[in-house]
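User: Predict the structure for this protein chain, please.
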Amino acid sequence: MNKLTPKKMFFTKGVGYHRNKLQSFELALRDAGIEKCNLVSVSSIFPPDCKIISKEAGIKTLNPGQITFTVMARESTNEPNRLIAAALGLAQPKDKKQYGYISEHHGFGETMKKASDYAEDLAATMLASTLGIEMDPDKAWDERKQLYITDSNRQFISRSIAQTAKGHKDGLWTTVIACVIMLLE
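Assistant: Here is the predicted structure, written as structure tokens:
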């Protein structure tokens, strides 16, 4: 593996409110604990042999100004009471030498559970196709999930993180984020 392959990663999320859209995003980054980093968006491959660590442990490794790789879902609104969501799903192979998938989902009018399930389902579907597992897109989420959770020969696991918020009652910008932060060391 080359030097830019992340060795560790952590999940984080946040929400911010402000009269300026950019500042609401900054406050969401603060809420997530990653405001001091220079974030670089990357696509959504979970690296082989990557260890998932806690948010608290991950944040301790970050330095101000550090170039930090992230997969980020982000949504904003300035409409009072409009429900917004940002979610990430991870499908991780049982074989740690294989890569997995991280999916991003941004939406309106979805509960945290709905957004989280959708992102997890999307990641699982992408990984399943790589592993040769047939997943019928017309079947319900719970029924599809059984293919890789309850099977005694389970080939992968999945998880997700989501942040939702209602647009501020006074029309302030509301921003939600869900992130995977990838660490090189």
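The chain has one domain: 8-183.
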